[in-house]
Amino acid sequence: MTFSLLARDEATGRLGLATATHAYGVGPVADHTRAGVGVVATQSFVEVSYGPRGLDLIERGIPAHEALDKLVADDPDADIRQVAYLDTAGGTAHHTGARCVPSCGGLADGPVVAIGNMLDNEGVLAAVVGAYRSAPGDLADRLLAGLAAGDEAGGDVRGRMSAALRVVAGERPGESWQGTLVDLRVDVDPDPVGRLRESLRFHRAYGVFFESVFKPGLVTGAEPVLGDELEKALAGLADTQQDLGDDLEPTVWRGVLLLRAGRVDEGAALIARGIDARPQFARFVDGLARVGILPAGSAEILRKAGR
Q1: Which InterPro entries match (predicted)?
Q2: What are the strands of the beta sheet with 15-21, ordered from one edge?
Q3: pLDDT tens-digit profile of 127-144?
C-alpha cells in the first residue's frame, strides 16, 4: 500500500519523514511529526492514533521502541498495522503486522528506518535506504532520493498516486507553531515524487522570497531600507526570480524596494516590466500606493519608465 522513510540528519539533528503510495492524500493520514520530539509513519490498514499518541509518549521521555511496543500491545488489530517511530536521539522502532500484505517489512540502519507494504518486491526498502545514504544534499533532498529509488525499484505494486515530505527541527521550539521546516504534499498525480521534488524547489525559492519581502519592516516600515540590508533583499529576489521563471512578482517587489530607497529609474523600470507581462500588476501597485508602501501609483511609475 505504502512505503515510508524516516531519518535523523546526524549533522543538524533535524528529523524527516517521506511517504509515497497508490492512495489519495497520504500525508495527513500516514505522516506525523513534532519538532524536538520525533516523527511517525503509520500505514497498512491505518490506525492514525499511532501518530499523536506515540509522539505524546516520546515527548514524556519514553524511548521510541518502548512507545511503539506499548501501543502495539494495546491494539487488538496490531496484525494489520505497519508503523515506524524515530526520536530525536536517533532511536528507531518499527512494526509490521503478520497480516500486512506482502511484499512488506521494515529496514533500519542507524537513525534511518524504512517500512513498506504492498510493495512490488523485497528489494524496494533496501533501495530506499541505500539511496538515502548515498544521496547528496540536505535532509529533504536525501529523503526524496530515497522515495525516488523506491519507485524505481518497483515501489507500490499498485502504482503511484500521492506523496508527502516533512522535516522538523531536532530542538523543541519556543512556540507550538514553530519548528516545522518543510511540509509538502502531492495528493494525486501520476508522478507524485517528481512533483514533490518540484514543490521542494518552489518551497526553497519562496523561502528566500518571503525573507526578502515579508521580513518585518522591510517594505512596511516608515523609513526605506538601505545599504547592505537592501542589497541582500534585492539579491534574494533576483535569485527567486531565476527559479520562478515567467512569474515576475519578485521583479515587481525588487522595483518596490528600489523606489522606496529613492532609486526611481531602476525601480520604475522593473515595475513596468512586471506590468508589461501582467497588466493586473498595475492594480497591485496602486494598492501598495494607497496603503503608503509606494510613493506613487502605477500611472506615474509607468510615466517615469517612459511608457
Answers
A1: DUF1028, Ntn_hydrolases_N
A2: 105-108, 112-117, 2-8, 15-21, 162-168, 180-186
A3: 999 999 999 999 999 999
